Amino acid sequence: MFEHLSPEIHLTFAGIAGLLLLANAILFLRKRSAPDRDDTELVLRVRTWWIIVVSFAAVLAVSTTTAIVFFGFVSFLALKEFLSLIPTRRADHRVLFWAYLAIPLQYIWVGTVWFGMFIIFIPVYMFIWLPTRMVLIGETKGFLRAIGTVQWGLMTTVFSLSHAAMLLMIRPGESARVMAVGADDGAVASGGAALLVLLVLLTQFNDVAQFCWGKTIGKKKVVPKVSPGKTVGGLIGGVASTVALAACVGPWLTYLDLPRSLLAGLIIGVAGFAGDISISALKRDLGVKDSGSTLPGHGGVLDRVDSLTYTAPLFFHFIYYCYG
Amino acid sequence: MADILRFLYFLLIVRPVILIVIGLNVRRSNLLPDKGPAVIVANHNSHLDTMVLMTLFGMRRLKDVHPVAAADHFLRNRLMAWFSTKIIGIIPLEREVKGVRRDPLAGICEALDDGKILILFPEGSRGTPEVRDEFKTGIAHVARRYPEVPFTPVFMHGLGRSLPKGEGILVPFFCDVFIGQAVYWTGKKASFMDRICDAMNELEAEKEIPRWEPS
Fold first, then answer.
1. Which residue ranges make up each domain of chain A?
2. Contact yes or no for A97 and B169 at CB 8 A
3. ipTM of the prediction
4. Which of A7, A119, A240, B140 is close enough to B189 for a disulfide, judged by CB 3.0 to 4.6 Å?
């Protein structure tokens, strides 16, 4: 059950569990020293982190297919949250049904490693089919808005997120631009899973780092109208922390060498920030605080995967360019 | 036999569809009555309303929960009647009593005497999705006969998008379920109906329905 995952992946999960235990310990001590302080939100958040980490580890451990189905389910929850948040036209009932149908299809392309279809299915076929279906219904009022929002939702929650799952399926090519490190040992055999773990770890770490640095340093706001908590100092500190973690973990966990790990950290740091504030802007536009309530202490699934919708495709194509 | 089928139907079909495909966002589920006799008063947008409310009560209380539904619609043929009464467990209500002098609330009273939890949709029919119609006053007649029975208001939003009247295809949307404090018979029909309607309006106001333009 665990053989297909390298010892480094096991150790990474052990390390994450250690960090969560540390968070539990800190919360416990805070409660002891100041019993009146209300940490309910933080306690819930850490508890939900445990559930996320354990389920992620479990689906990876069972099999690659299970992990792909898991990401498909995450896409489903995220798209459902997105469509529940935005206003939709009653006439588009069946169009939205087609949008949902894109999820299993997109993940079938992942599972069968049909790369060409995977990369064009939503940006080309769905892009043309959904407005066609909409036109056949014949409602023109609000047409552009309706098709624009549905396509954007599919691109972020399904197309982008499926890139995370696709990491599991790619192998370093024979004539790649960059040589994979440790090409003859376990690093390549479980290379996909290691890349996925690195992506998710760095993306989530970047969220936390941006948040913590934003609280401690910097006065100048990056985008005060969208997210008042984000400062220039926080952004730089967050990206620097993510690059540092990428340099430490990347070459050890995956087949990336040090320069490629540093670049990956930079891409994930900057793109994670962009994804985060894009979803923030969406929520602000609609006047809601959280995208949902599926993950107690975090909000909705979309609140949790917001950065991943930007980091997953960019990280994937960086890997594909270097090693594909 | 039918009881086992009913249990399996809710466990294997209704619950997975409601909890995974649809997904609920429930506020204050602790206000739901733990045991009967009790009445749930809810707004009606979709056939899924009943399934959501029954899911909220969990499998343990399933045997005590019964929706009240229109006899003319749900008993219109033998198969439908069997499914409605044995599997869903509806208490049929005659919407129009013609000629025969029979108490239209007899079925409801019998169930309350048995200590059941009833689900009532005082709007009568599903109507236009996500538009709340005025409540019919039938519930006041029930409340007058059972002044000690709690009437718990429940507001639901989203199911009219998932499966509106006239649509056969279910499209997933998250469903909000807001539960309010129970209301008891006040002694007067008008003030009881006002209380119920105020409670529903308050629950509805909790939901900020997103719109493109500020309304």
1. 1-62, 65-169, 191-323
2. yes
3. 0.89
4. B140
